[in-house]
Amino acid sequence: MICDNKRLAELAVLVQGELVGDPEILIRGVADFDNAGEGEITFVADLKRGAMLDKCKASAIIVPTSLPEISIPAIRVRNPYLAVARIHALFVEKPFVANGIDARAVVGQDCRIPAEVAISPLVYLGNRVRLGQRVTLHPGVVVYDDAVIGDDVVLYANVTIGHHCQIGNRVIIHSGVVIGSDGFGYATDGNGRHIKRPQVGAVQIDDDVEIGANTCIDRATFGKTWVKRGTKIDNLVQLGHNVVIGEDTLLVAQVGVAGSVTTGNNVVIGGQVGIIGHIHLGDRVMVAAKSGVTKNLEPGAMVGGIPAIPQKNWLRSSAAYAKLPEMLRELRELQRKVAELTGVMEPGEDDSPGNNE
Amino acid sequence: MICDNKRLAELAVLVQGELVGDPEILIRGVADFDNAGEGEITFVADLKRGAMLDKCKASAIIVPTSLPEISIPAIRVRNPYLAVARIHALFVEKPFVANGIDARAVVGQDCRIPAEVAISPLVYLGNRVRLGQRVTLHPGVVVYDDAVIGDDVVLYANVTIGHHCQIGNRVIIHSGVVIGSDGFGYATDGNGRHIKRPQVGAVQIDDDVEIGANTCIDRATFGKTWVKRGTKIDNLVQLGHNVVIGEDTLLVAQVGVAGSVTTGNNVVIGGQVGIIGHIHLGDRVMVAAKSGVTKNLEPGAMVGGIPAIPQKNWLRSSAAYAKLPEMLRELRELQRKVAELTGVMEPGEDDSPGNNE
Amino acid sequence: MICDNKRLAELAVLVQGELVGDPEILIRGVADFDNAGEGEITFVADLKRGAMLDKCKASAIIVPTSLPEISIPAIRVRNPYLAVARIHALFVEKPFVANGIDARAVVGQDCRIPAEVAISPLVYLGNRVRLGQRVTLHPGVVVYDDAVIGDDVVLYANVTIGHHCQIGNRVIIHSGVVIGSDGFGYATDGNGRHIKRPQVGAVQIDDDVEIGANTCIDRATFGKTWVKRGTKIDNLVQLGHNVVIGEDTLLVAQVGVAGSVTTGNNVVIGGQVGIIGHIHLGDRVMVAAKSGVTKNLEPGAMVGGIPAIPQKNWLRSSAAYAKLPEMLRELRELQRKVAELTGVMEPGEDDSPGNNE
C-alpha cells in the first residue's frame, strides 16, 4: 500500500458520501467483499449482496443509499462502484519514479525528452520523438519517428506507436497495442490485383484514453484516425483508417470498426460488434454484443442483431427465432387446413394439394 | 529427428495398439499420408482414407481398429489421432538445452533463476521474478516484477507476463500473448466520464495449459483470473477479468469471454464465440462457433446461435431462417385466403381491409 | 516528398488517363479533396462528389470518365482509386536506405545476409536465417532459425517469423504479426485430456502479400500453411494450420479461418467472418461481414449469414427476421380464425363424406 492509513471520515468526504458509525476508524486499503478484513474497506453495489452484510469482516463498507439499515461502519453513496474506484485509487496509485533513460534503451536523434521520465531497457525511440513529463515506457516499446507523447502516459510492454502519431496526456496503452499501422486500402486493377493506396495520415489519441492489450488502430489514408478524450477501449479491438471515436465512449473487447466510421460521445459498443464503413453513430448509442451495424444510428439509439435493428425488436425477433421450426410446422398445418376449408367451401374447385402457388 | 530409430513393435506398445506385420521394421519419423516414405510411419483416422491404403508409401501405418483388413505393416488403435500424437512426440521432442542467461538479456534484482534455464537475448525480467527448472524464454519476452513461472515452461517471442502473475509447469505460451493486462473496469460518474477501477488481482495459469498467439488474459479486479490444468487456448482469444476456465477445456480462436464467467471442466467453445459476463458454463458444455452465450448452461449442454439456444433447436431454426421470406409470403397468402373464407362464411361482416389485426 | 515535381501530362501518361487542361502544371504531391491545395493533385471517385468540384483548391484532379464536364485541370480515368494509388505511390515511396546491421541487433550463426539491408537495433535473428536484398527489419522483430525472407520485404516492429517459415518478395508485415505459431491440434485421450499433436510444418507467404497488425498465421501440422501471391490480409486475422489462401484475395479484419480451409483466387472475405475447417471456397467467392461459412462454395458464390446462405436470400431472410414477432402474432391470429372457421364448418357438415383428414 502506498499512502498512509486514512480515517473513514476522510474517505466519506472524498466521495461525498454519508458516514455511518465511527469517523475515526483507520482504513489502509480496499478488498473485495469475501476477502476484506481488519483495516480494510469493501463495498456492496446492490441490495442483494446487502443481505449478506453480517458476513462482512471488513472494518467498513461502502453501500448504496438505498440500503435501509446498516449496523457496521459504512459510507452511503449513490454509486458504490464510483466511490470504490476513487477510494481504491487513493490507496494504490503509485507515485511516478523518474528512473530516467536506461542505458539499454535505444534513442534516436533530435528527440525531446524531459528529465522526469522512466524509459526501460529494450525500448526503441526513433528520431525527433517528443515525450511529455513523467512518461513511462516499458520494455519492448517501439516509438517511431516524429511521434508525440503527452504527459503522464504509460505504454506497457511491446507497444508500437507509428510515425507521426500523437498520444495525449494520461493515456494508458496496454501490452502489444499497435497504433499507426497502415490502413487496409487498395485499388483493384483490371487483372484483379490489389494496388496499395499509400496511407499517409496518422493517429491521434486524446487525453485520458485507455487502450487494451493487442488492440490495433490504423493510421488514416489522409488526415487522422482519432480517438477522443476519455474513451476506453478493451483488448483486441480493431479501428480502421479514418475512424473517429467520440468522447467517453466504451468499446468492449474484439469490436471491429471499419474505415471512416464516426461516433458521437458516450457511445457503448458491446463485445465482438462489427461496424460497417462510412457510417455515423450518434451520441449515447448503445450496440448489443456481437451485433453488426450497417446504418447510421440516431443519438440514443439502442440496437442489436446482424444486421442491427432496434434492441427491443431484436429481443423479440431472437425470441421468435427459437420458435421458427414450430412456426414453420404450424404454417404448413394451417395451409393444409385452409386448403381443406377452401375445398369444402368451393367444391367445384380442384382440391389437389398442388395448388398452393 | 531427435531420437534414434524405433522398432515398430516398440511403437505399438507405446500406444497400446495391435501390431500387424513385421515387428522389427525400423521407423525414424512420422509424416502425413501423402508424403510419408521409407522409414516413416503415417496414419489414417477414418475409413474413407482407408480405401486409399494401396497408395501408401510409408513403412508402416497407424489405423483405426475398425479398419477391416490391412496388407502393410500397421498398428491398430482405437484413436489414431491420439496414437500419432504420442508417437510423433517421441520423435520430435527436443531435449532441453540449458543455455543459461544470455548476456544481452535484462534481469532485475532479487530474481530466483535456476542454473538450468535458457534465456534469450532481448528478454526482460523485472525484480523478484522466480523461474522454475528448464524454463525457455524467447527473445522479446517481458516478465514483470514478482511473476512466478513453473518448470519446463516455454514463452515464445514477445510474450508479456504481468506483475504477480503465476504460470504453472509445462505451460506453452505462443508469441505475442499478453497475460495480466488490466481488466476493463470503470465506474461512470454523473458527467458520463469513466473512472478507472484499479485492477489489483493477478492471473494464474495452471499446469499443462497452452495459449495461442496474441491471446489476452486480463488480471482480476480482486483475486485472480484463472485457467486450470490442461486447458488449451487458441490464438487471439480474450479472457476478461476474474474469468475462471476449468480443466481440459478447449477455447478455439477469437473467442471472447467477458468478466467473471466461470466454466466447468472439459468444456469446448467454438471459434469466435462470445460469452456474456457473470455466467457459469457447466462441465462438458459445447458451444458452436460464432455463438453468443447469454445464460448459465447446465453440464453437458450443447448450444448454438445468438443468443445461444440448444444446438438441435438452433440447427432447425437456422434451416428455417433460410425459408423466412417464403414463410412470410405464404403467411400473407394464407391471410388472404382466410379473409376470403371468412368473408364467404360471414357475409354480413365489414369487409374493409383494416381488420387484419 | 521524395520525388521531384511532376508535370500533369506525365501523370496522365502514367495512369493512361485523358488529360484535361494545361499539361505543364507542376504537381508535388497528393492530398484528399478537402485539404488539397496549390501544387497538389486530388481525386473524386464518384459523381456525387463531382458536384462539389467548384470547391476544389487543388491544382489538378483525377476524375472518373463518367463525369460530364470539368473546368479545372484534370485526368480522366476509368478507376480514380487505382490512378490515385499509382500517382500517390510515385510521390511517397521512399528509396531503400541500406543502413546495414545495427550493432544492437542480435544475429545468430550461419545467417546469409546481403550487404543491402536495414536491420534495426533490438532485432533478433536466429541461426541460418536467409535474408533477401533490401530487407528492412524494424525493432523487436524476431526471426527464428532457418527462416527465409525474400527481397524488398518490410517487417514492422515486434513481428515474429517462426522457424523454417518462408516469406516471398515485396511482402509487408505490420507490427505484432505472428507467423508460424503452432497450429491448434490435440488428440483427446480416454480421460478427456488433450494431447498436443506436434506441428512440424511451416508457413509460406508468397510475393506481394501484405499482412495487417497482430494477425496470426499458424504453421501446418505437416506440410505448409500457404498464402499466395498478391493477397492482402487486414489486422487481427486468424489463419489456422494448413490453410491455403489463393492469389489476390482480401481478408478483412478479424476474420477467422479454421484449419485446412483452401480458397481459390480473388476471393473477398468480409470482416469478422468465420470459416469452418476443411472446406473449399472457389475463385471470386464473396462472403459478407460477420458471416459463418460452413460448406464448400462454388466459384463466384456470394453468401452471407450464420450459417452462410446465398447473399440474396440472406438479405431477404434478415429483412424478414425483423418481422418475426409480427409474423408469430399473425400466425396465432390465423390459427384462431381457422379454428373458428373449422368450428363453423364442422357441426353442420353431415353431408360431406370427403373430409377424412
Describe this protein's structure.
The structure is a homotrimer of 357-residue chains. With 357 residues, chain A is of the alpha/beta class. Chain A folds into three domains: 6-92, Udp-n-acetylmuramoylalanyl-d-glutamate--2,6- Diaminopimelate Ligase, Chain: A, domain 1 (3-Layer(aba) Sandwich), CATH 3.40.1390; 100-313, Hexapeptide repeat proteins (UDP N-Acetylglucosamine Acyltransferase, domain 1); 323-357. In chain A, the strands form seven sheets. Chain A has a twelve-stranded mixed sheet, covered by helices on one side. The longest helix of chain A has 22 residues, at 324-345. Chain A is flat. The model of chain A is unreliable at 348-357 (pLDDT under 50).
What would the keywords be for this entry?
Udp-n-acetylmuramoylalanyl-d-glutamate--2,6- Diaminopimelate Ligase, Chain: A, domain 1; 357 residues; 27% strand; homotrimer; 10-stranded parallel beta sheet; alpha/beta; 3 domains; disordered C terminus; UDP N-Acetylglucosamine Acyltransferase, domain 1
Give the largest interface pair and sizes: A-C, 64 and 69 residues
Mean pLDDT of chain A: 93
Reported for the largest beta sheet of chain A, the result is: 12 strands, mixed
In CATH, the topology of the largest domain in chain A is named UDP N-Acetylglucosamine Acyltransferase, domain 1
| C-alpha geometry of chain A | flat
SS elements, strand count of chain A:
39
Give me the CATH superfamily of the largest domain in chain A. Answer: Hexapeptide repeat proteins
Oligomer: homotrimer
Please bin the fraction of helical residues of chain A. 10-25%
CATH architecture title of the largest domain in chain A:
3 Solenoid
Strand fraction band of chain A? 25-35%
The DSSP helix count of chain A reads 5
- Low-confidence stretches of chain A are 348-357
Query: What is the CA-CA span between the terminal residues of chain A?
Result: 77 Å
Q: CATH class of the largest domain in chain A, anyone?
A: Mainly Beta
Number of domains of chain A: 3
Q: Which class best fits the helix and strand makeup of chain A?
A: alpha/beta
Radius of gyration of chain A: 28 Å
Strand order within the widest beta sheet of chain A? 8-10-13-16-19-24-27-30-33-36-38-39
